[in-house]
């Protein structure tokens, strides 16, 4: 069974703080993704990575950065948290589409509140 | 830009009613299609997927979806819903030649009344 874990289920931070969200997958997947989920907007891709040390911007990368130093771990960083970054953050992983059909497996999410 | 449209934002049904949730996408090439479900307080999980072959695919818990290429649609159906189907449903599209990126719809919230 694929397992994607996220470091925190709930997080409360102050405006201006640096925030780290961690994601770990245990199935040796090449691809990893960070989304934010907001009511009425669905899932919006922030960043994704298809290999260690590789990253690609998604649809809404502004205000975020990522790090992938090891294959199993993908971190999302909010350099200076703002209230409009209050959201549910979802991490996902997958094999490349050509080999593993590419379906994504999701973690439980981190609900971040920035005050 | 790619887009995925889910026309029903909120659906309320009584138990045993039939369900159909619409999903349309804008990408013209070959796509893989998915429906994900998120039960209250739980993580997103795959309900069913289409890659090729029979356009009618069956998933878990009695759900099925039909791919109609000419209509760029992948509608989700269930003949008789249960209270436990109350959840949010997301359609997703992965264009095959644009890498590994998924495009998600905005979701449909389903409430089933006992």
Topology:
The complex is a heterodimer of chains A (115) and B (114).
Chain A: E1 4-6, E2 10-13, E3 19-25, E4 31-38, E5 42-49, E6 56-57, E7 64-70, E8 73-78, E9 87-94, H1 97-100, E10 105-106, E11 110-114
Parallel strand pairs in A: 2-11
Antiparallel strand pairs in A: 1-3, 3-8, 4-5, 4-9, 5-6, 7-8, 9-10, 9-11
Chain B: E1 4-5, E2 10-14, E3 19-21, E4 24-25, E5 31-38, E6 45-50, E7 56-58, E8 64-68, E9 73-78, E10 87-95, E11 103-104, E12 108-113
Parallel strand pairs in B: 2-12
Antiparallel strand pairs in B: 1-4, 3-9, 5-6, 5-10, 7-8, 8-9, 10-11, 10-12
Written as H for each helix and E for each strand, in order along the chain, the element string of chain B is EEEEEEEEEEEE
Number of helices of chain B: 0
Biggest protein-protein interface?
A-B, 26 and 24 residues
Oligomer: heterodimer
In terms of DSSP E residues, the strand content of chain A is over 45%
For the termini of chain B, the CA-CA separation is: 41 Å
Helix/strand-derived category of chain B reads mainly beta
The ordered string of helix (H) and strand (E) elements of chain A is EEEEEEEEEHEE
- The Rg value of chain A, from CA coordinates, equals 13 Å
Structural class of chain A: mainly beta
What profile does the largest beta sheet of chain A have?
Answer: 7 strands, mixed
First-to-last CA distance of chain A: 37 Å
Helical amount among residues of chain B, as a percent range? Answer: under 10%
User: What is the typical, i.e. mean, pLDDT of chain A?
Assistant: 92
Rg of chain B: 14 Å
Poorly predicted regions of chain B: none
Explain this structure.
The complex is a heterodimer of chains A (115) and B (114). By secondary structure, chain A is mostly beta strands. Helix content of chain A is 3%, strand content 52%. In chain A, strands 2, 4, 5, 6, 9, 10 and 11 form a 7-stranded mixed beta sheet that branches. Chain A starts with a strand and ends with a strand. By secondary structure, chain B is mainly β. In chain B, the strands form 3 sheets. In chain B, strands 2, 5, 6, 10, 11 and 12 form a 6-stranded mixed beta sheet that branches. The relative contact order of chain B is 0.34. The model of chain B has no long low-confidence stretch (mean pLDDT 92). Chain A binds chain B through residues 31, 33, 35, 40-45, 48, 50, 58, 90, 92, 94, 96-97, 101-109, and chain B through 6, 9, 32, 34, 36, 42-46, 49, 51, 90, 92, 94, 96, 99-102, 104-107.
